[in-house]
Design brief:
- The protein has three domains: about 200 residues, Alpha-lytic protease prodomain-like, CATH 1.20.1510.10; about 80 residues, Cation efflux protein, cytoplasmic domain (Alpha-Beta Plaits); about 80 residues, Alpha-Beta Plaits (2-Layer Sandwich).
- A hairpin with a 4-residue loop joins β4 and β5.
- It is of the alpha/beta class.
- The relative contact order is 0.09.
- The strands form two sheets. A three-stranded mixed sheet has the order 1-2-3, covered by helices on one side. Strands 4-5-6 form a three-stranded mixed sheet, covered by helices on one side.
- It is built from ten helices and six strands, in the order αααααααββαβαββαβ.
- The structure holds zinc ion.
- The site of zinc ion has 7 residues, from β1 and β4.
């Protein structure tokens, strides 16, 4: 199923539902002179707006790549969900503001049974809409739809509070809608901040989820016996369904270019099919079995134990003809003096194996 079409269809259902709710609530709210029902209507209007923004964002994000933007426009969706987060924040702030106003002005609305019926129906509609949004969001992995779904579920709580306030005011003549509105407003603000944090994290760029990193590595390792290890996995996303990445694989140094080429192509295809990642594969040669290689590696591993901020060493290779030793080091993000540590390691190795040159590369801890 086409992702864009799914999102647009879902959003249109959201817009139509919300516009209907706005109409009914505005009508009954003005009749009853109820600030909380009118506020509820305004809130639904912002929801319709969110859905509209989702549609526009999805359309823009699906624009074809071109020379200036070869990665496409997928990241526009992160801007859209940021915008929706701001709308949620606005709705929360409005709810609090209006509630405080209604408390200060001490207004006494006059409700009838129609208010109860319409607000009750709105609650059910909002719950169904929220669940529908969340189901679709999960299906097509859309942050914007997810935010809209969360928003709709909160709205149903908001309407529920309004309903309680109506019933209490009709039966006991106590007006509690102001207090309820403030509490609900705070909850709406909280969900707005969470949505904002999530979409900003996508824009800034965040660490690949451990589960996904492991799944990619395991796919490569399980399918190819000749791959001895997968390292330096990097995945950059250019929208929810488009990623470009790279990884290093370790293979025995006797393997030929012809075999490597085939291996790379197979890995690229598998990773693309399973994860929609366009993957570049780099090679580390391995020859751990030779006498001198073992000796140097064991000594190196012993040295590395002294450095708690080193979390991985890989790509170890000894070229006995050129008297060259290659390996990569990954530090955690707390090591302040990476180059100092590297030169210390180099010196220590050099003292013991003076005939060798050590070529050490510092890798970044991009993923688990
Ligand atoms: Zn590396």
């Amino acid at each position: 199923m086409n992702r864009e079409k799914e999102i647009v269809k879902t959003s249109i259902i959201g817009i139509l539902t919300n516009i209907l709710l706005v109409g009914f609530k505005a009508f009954i709210g003005i009749l009853a002179m109820s600030i909380s029902i009118i506020m509820d209507a305004v809130n639904n209007l912002t929801d319709a707006l969110s859905s509209l923004i989702t549609i526009i964002g999805t359309k823009l994000a699906n624009k074809k790549p071109n020379k200036a933007h070869p990665y496409g426009y997928g990241r526009i969706e992160y801007l859209t969900s940021t915008l929706i987060a701001f709308i949620i924040l606005f709705a929360g702030a409005t709810a609090i503001y209006e509630s405080i106003v209604s408390l200060v002005e001490n207004k006494t609305p006059s409700y009838d049974n129609w208010a109860i019926i319409i607000v009750s129906v709105a609650i059910v509609v909002k719950i169904l809409l929220g669940l529908f949004f969340r189901y679709k969001a999960k299906k097509v992995s859309s942050d914007a739809l997810k935010s809209s779904g969360t928003d709709a579920l909160f709205d149903s709580i908001l309407s529920l509070a309004t309903l309680i306030a109506i019933i209490v005011s009709m039966t006991a003549h106590v007006y509690i809608e102001g207090y309820l509105g403030i509490i609900i407003g705070l909850f709406i603000l909280k969900s707005g901040f969470e949505a904002l944090k999530e979409s900003l994290a996508q824009i800034i760029g965040s660490r690949l989820e451990t589960e996904k990193a492991n799944a990619i590595k395991n796919l490569i390792l399980d399918n190819h016996k000749e791959v001895l290890g997968v390292y330096d996995l990097i995945v950059n996303n250019y929208g929810p369904d488009k990623s470009i990445g790279s990884a290093h694989i370790e293979v025995n140094d006797s393997i030929t270019a012809k075999e490597i080429q085939l291996l790379e192509r197979e890995i690229q295809t598998e990773v693309y099919i399973n994860f929609s990642i366009i993957m570049t594969v780099g090679i580390y040669a391995s020859n751990d079995s030779t006498e001198i290689s073992k000796k140097i590696k064991d000594y190196l591993l012993e040295i590395l134990k002294k450095y708690p901020h080193i979390i991985q060493m890989h790509g170890f290779y000894v070229d006995e003809v050129k008297k060259l030793v290659l390996f990569d080091i990954i530090f955690d993000f707390d090591e302040e003096n990476q180059s100092g540590v590297i030169s210390e390691i180099n010196t220590t190795l050099k003292e013991k194996f003076s005939e060798f040159t050590f070529n050490i590369i510092i890798d970044t801890d991009f993923s688990d």
